[in-house]
Amino acid sequence: MRTLISTGSPFEKTAGYSRAVVQGDWCFVSGTTGYDYATMTMPDTVEAQTRNCLATIAKALADGGFEMADVVRAHYYITDQAYVDVVFPILGEAFGEIRPAATMIVCQLNKPEMKIEIEVTALKRTA
Known about the structure:
Number of strands: 6
Helix content: 25-40%
Largest sheet: 6 strands, mixed
Protein name: RidA family protein
Shape: globular
InterPro entries: RutC-like_sf, YjgF/YER057c/UK114
């Protein structure tokens, strides 16, 4: 059974994607930037954007019946190499005990105000 998860962001409808797709025991969370979807504002700092990304991802996972502890793969996209040492501790707070396979890439993102984008894949843990 396939379930589509939405944040209600206007970007999802415009670009034709879901925040997350649940297929069986898997949850695929789309690349998530630092927007606060309640206010549709983007914080100025990479730290605040990272925390917003993680909160949006956690909610999408929860909406699909998953937890952050189910994350098995993470992709991090940052716009400046200087952000590596800034975001590592924040990512460590979220994933330090989970330790998913991860990749970080320095690249350009869709809008100039975007400093980080995070994408994760989760697999339901079995007892």
